[in-house]
Amino acid sequence: MLHETNSYIRSLKFALQNNSLPSFSDVIDADRRPHGEHERRFNALVCNEIAAVIHGEEHNSRDIVIKYRGGGLRRISETHCSYDCLQYPLLFPYGSDGYHFKIPICQASSDSMSTSKTVSCRAYYAYMFMVREGEFNHLHRCRQLFLKFAVDMAAKMESERLGFIKLNQSKLRTDSSIHLRDGLRSDGDRRNLGKPCILPSSYTGGPRYMHERTQDAMTYVRHCGRPDLFITFTCNPKWVDITRELFPGQQYSHRPDLIARVFRLQLLKLMDLILKGQVFERAKCHMYTVEWQKRGLPHAHILLWLNNKVDANKIDDFIFAEIPDPALELCSTKSLKKI
What is d(CA 173, CA 183) in angstroms, rounded to the nearest whole number? Predict the structure, then answer.
């Protein structure tokens, strides 16, 4: 089928036809843990996941190299329109174009396309991963291959963001930059200062981003004292919104896109209940962080500062656990056994 529908298959040489390729494998031993570290941090995963290991000190290109049947090599960058179909021929059997920099934005209110603005990498793949009623999306049925594709495209998004920051340093860096001041104060040669590439606080997960979030948290503590409530909200893979969308034979670990979307909606619903519904009375301020567990599910840690302190007796009005009597509450007993 691929030979008939994909023009790249007919013109390129298969990697299996190259006998000079080295044969090696990387092995990660989960039993060997660094001395002094928390033991549970290095526990083995309980579900099959795919991850990307990216060197943080150097920004190397993630180009792929293709070899033509008649001879000759060519490098294809990750932002080339043919990258997706060349890297994943089973996902794109017709050799259709993927993401590139020159995809214009089409306004939903009109049929005209904006030539001044283009689609971002994140928006493009969010569109591809979206679930639409009545439309068949083969990506959601590819299991491990879909996971690899999603991780690869996430790395492409990060690479695009970093590339944009690197090319727009003149808008981010000023003469009063802390790095430049530190360099001028030192006794070293000014010619060795180089051209520092500043990662702004708008880059999620970067040092400045994390520093600003930490300062926000410390400001809350300085003005409002210690938080009154610490709430942990965990994703439940048995939520109806998740199980209803899984295909026969699928597990929740096969659909990270579905897990992320449902959990975010449930988290926003919970925060709306707490802040607007005021189930714990009025909150002065709040903050939360989302983490992903080793079983492939996210959870959120929420801190709340309340106007009126909650005493221990009131906690039982919101949080309690009891085993129902099967003779009196059969439905509740069945629901408890499913958890």
Answer: 14
What is the 8-class DSSP label of residue 194? -
pLDDT tens string 14-25? 655 555 556 677
Tokens 């003149």 sit at which residue?
Answer: 170
Q: Which residues contact 301 (CB under 8 A, 6 or more apart)?
A: 230, 231, 232, 288, 289, 291
CA distance 226 to 192: 46
Return d(Cα 266, Cα 105) in angstroms, integer.
Answer: 30
Give residue 176's pLDDT band: very low, low, confident or very high (50, 70, 90). Answer: very low
CB neighbour burial string for 162-178, b if at least 16 within 10 angstroms, e if fewer: eeebeeeeeeebeeeee
Distance of CA 183 to the CA centre of its chain: 35
CA distance 109 to 105: 12
Q: Among residues of the chain, what percentage have pLDDT more than 90?
A: 35
Asked if 283 and 307 count as a contact pair (C-beta separation under 8 A), the reply is yes
pLDDT digit string, tens, across residues 88-131: 988 998 888 899 988 888 776 666 555 568 899 999 999 999 98
DSSP 230: E
Radius of gyration of the chain (CA): 26
Please tell me whether the overall predicted TM-score, pTM, comes out greater than 0.85 for this model: no
Do 9 and 2 contact (CB within 8 A), yes or no?
A: yes
DSSP per position, 82-141 = THHHHH-TTT-TT------TT-EEEPTTSS-EEEEEE--HHHHHHHHH---TT---GGGG
Label residue 128 exposed, middle or buried (CB < 10 Å: 0-12, 13-18, 19+): middle
DSSP helix/strand/coil, 155: helix
Cβ distance 52 to 62 under 8 Å?
A: no
274 within 8 A of 267, measured Cβ to Cβ: no
339: closest CA among 238, 243, 245? 238
